[in-house]
Amino acid sequence: PVPVRTARSSRRKRKLGLKSWAFADDLGVNLRFPLRLWPLLILEFSRFEVINCLRINLDKTFIIPWSPLRPGSAIYDMIAASIWSRLLENVVTSAKYLGIILGPGATSDDNWQAPLLKFKQRCCIWSHKGLPFSYRLMALNIYCLPVLAYVGQYWLPSSKTYERVKSLCVATLGGPHNW
């Protein structure tokens, strides 16, 4: 993901604590001071809608607060009074952004679950091909392990996940009693 910047107002936004990332049609926004920045965020998205003739899909938009969002709080009331009041139905503790689960409710095991399953499937395919050791090693390095690299940039594997990866690698490479 790359930071989203407009030449005119990027310095002002950074000073205020508004940080955003975008990749294709996925956008992430971090509000350091939500009470001050909520109106600015709505204004920026309104400009985005006018310029691109696109609308924000509020059904796929989530609010991930770092502390509980309770009715009666200032930020809750501000969101409820805005044109995006429907977002209060989508308040979650974690959500997936570009394949990574983010938020205070996200755990390492949650993020490693899907890549580990894909890794296991690839290891099974290559281990049953009857290839020599050197070819299986090359397949493991080229086709299997890169599946784990993306999540590994964001989350360290637990010891249980590490042991699972290690056992799958040994099983893929084969040998007498899996070495």
Written overview of the protein:
By secondary structure, this protein is mainly alpha-helical. Helices cover 49% and strands 11% of the residues. It has seven helices and five strands. It has helices at residues 10-16, 34-52, 74-81, 108-127, 133-144, 146-152, 159-173, and strands at 2-3, 18-23, 26-31, 95-97, 100-102. It is elongated.
Features:
179 residues, mainly alpha, 7 helices, 49% helix, elongated
How much β-strand is present in the residues? Answer: 5-15%
Uncertain stretches of 5 or more adjacent residues: none
Largest sheet: 3 strands, antiparallel
H/E order of the elements? EHEEHHEEHHHH
What is the terminal-to-terminal distance? 41 Å
Strand order of the largest sheet: 1-2-3
How much is the radius of gyration in Å? Answer: 22 Å
Structural class, judged by helices and strands? Answer: mainly alpha
Fraction in helix: 40-55%
Strand tally is 5
What is the approximate shape? elongated
Helical run tally? 7
Q: For the residues shown, what is the average pLDDT?
A: 83
